[in-house]
């Protein structure tokens, strides 16, 4: 019951300090993307280079022009863009408490908001990349459809999962700085075992079960089904129930671990 009450007060504080959060997000965004000569170009150049490299290897090197009967580029981009959000959100948020250590000793500021600042910064870029994805999809003949109404749903899925993981990783990194390197290894591993650049439709038995147990698959495949394949999220009831169980579980675990370790942040930092 106390955790529910804390969650209520936390949301209340977010609303009360929304202007401070907005300023910090703008500050973080400018620091990350507007402090260099190319500025925001880097936000698009890095994922674009990654996508084009994978596209070149598959279409030119392996001479495979499509995937599961769909044009390769929109099929590829529709899953890679949500993955970039997951990867960057987790990577940036994990070091947020260390980066914003000067805020932790300020009594009026709710420390749990700090990882959210990084999430919101990454979210801004993700919204721009969503527009790029829509343009690519339309240019390949995938016209806007009613399925695109699912975009906010899958974005909510990603945010809930990332908030929990961000609280967990950022709290642990205050005490164990190796967490950042661990996350880099973790995200690299999951990029290859998640069906992002390879189709999963032919998998059966244990192999398909392993894919379904991966919560990131629900999000990346959801974007692909929204933009390219034209499927509703509720068509896979069991997978949807499983994802929300895992997402809420990580949200609760992240909140509890963060709350337990929070009194020690100022001493360590």
Main attributes of the structure:
about 270 residues, mainly alpha, two-stranded antiparallel ribbon, about 75% helix, about 0% strand
Structure characterization notes:
With 269 residues, the protein is mainly alpha-helical. It has one domain (2-268). It contains 13 helices and 2 strands, in the order αααββαααααααααα. The protein has helices at residues 2-16, 18-33, 41-61, 72-94, 96-99, 101-104, 114-139, 151-175, 179-193, 205-212, 215-229, 237-261, 265-268; strands at 66-67, 70-71. The protein is globular, with a radius of gyration of 19 Å.
Percent of sequence in beta strands: under 5%
How many domains make up the coordinates? 1
Average pLDDT taken over every residue:
83
Order of helices and strands: HHHEEHHHHHHHHHH
Described by strand count, sense and barrel closure, the largest sheet is:
2 strands, antiparallel
Structural class designation: mainly alpha
The best one-word shape is globular
Q: How many helix segments? A: 13
Radius of gyration: 19 Å
How many strand units?
Answer: 2
- State the share of residues found in helices, binned by percent: over 70%
